[in-house]
Amino acid sequence: MTQKPRRSSRAVQAREAARERNARFRELEDERLRIAEAAILIQDEIADFDEETERRVAKLREERNSQLIEKRQQLDALVVEMLDTEVPAQEASERLGMSVGQVRAAKKSFEQTVAALAESPADDATATASDPAAAPSADDAAASPVPSADETDVAPPAPQTAPAAESYDFPPPGGSPAVPAQEGSPENLQNATLPPGSAG
Q1: How far apart are CA 97 and CA 184, in angstroms?
Q2: Is the four-CA dihedral 44, 46, 52, 58 of positive or negative sign?
Q3: DSSP characters for the chain?
Q4: Choosing a second label site near 167 at 20 to 30 A (CA), which of 20, 49, 120, 190?
Q5: How far is 70 from 125, CA to CA, in rounded Å?
Q6: DSSP bridge pairs for 169
Q7: How far apart are CA 196 and CA 94, in angstroms?
Q8: Cα–Cα distance, 195 to 177 (Å, whole number)
Q9: How far is C-alpha 2 from the chain's CA centre?
């Protein structure tokens, strides 16, 4: 009779121990889920931060390159300005704190920049001349008025001919020249009809 209560008490104790262990596993599982969630969130934040950083770095590099090009062009112009004062490259390099090779490279870069600027207007003019948009399109040609058959059949006006010059008879040798009577000459005045009231 005494064994049954002992067995029942042991079963209750075992059940309680199993519950405690199960609760412990649940706590551990919740902790694992919390850790995994935090890790995934941090990885997403790292990816976003890295992408934003790369974008900012690319923008800074672009600004850096443009400013460096501008500053180097200014330096090249100063080097050429120094050389224009008729000093040798060696002396110019010492005055500017540069090597002779840097002085010569700056001079060459300046000349190339000037040549490129001089060629750009010619390139623009060539591109404009070769632009097909400047030529009339087929739609424009179709929209232009076409002369009708009546207009094309009209004969062009006859060319105006200059009045024939009065003939001049050369006199025989020893004779007086016969000059044609001109308008307003005495010969024509004799045959002219005076208007009424003009006589007198």
Answers
A1: 99
A2: negative
A3: --HHHHHHHHHHHHHHHHHHHHHHHHHHHHHHHHHHHHHHHHHHHHHHHHHHHHHHHHHHHHHHHHHHHHHHHHHHHHHHHHHTTS--HHHHHHHHT--HHHHHHHHHHHHHHHHHHHHHHHHHHHHHHT-GGGSPPHHHHHHS----HHHHHSPPPPPPPPPPPPP-BPPPTTSPPBPPPPTT-HHHHHHPPPPTT---
A4: 190
A5: 27
A6: 178
A7: 110
A8: 33
A9: 105
pLDDT tens track for 162-193 = 444 444 455 555 555 555 555 555 555 455 45
In order along its 200 residues, the chain shows pLDDT tens digits of 445 556 678 888 888 888 888 888 888 899 999 999 999 999 999 999 999 999 999 999 999 999 999 999 999 999 999 999 999 999 999 999 999 999 999 999 999 999 998 887 666 655 555 555 544 555 554 445 555 544 444 455 555 554 444 444 555 555 555 555 555 555 554 554 555 554 44
Q: What is the pLDDT of residue 92?
A: 94
Pair of tokens at residue 147: 């002369």
Distance in angstroms (rounded) separating the CA atoms of residues 64 and 50: 20
How far is it, in rounded angstroms, from Cα 18 to Cα 27? 14
Ramachandran angles phi, psi of 178, nearest 5°: -95, 105
178's CB contacts (< 8 A; 6+ apart) are 169, 171
Whole-model pTM: value is 0.41
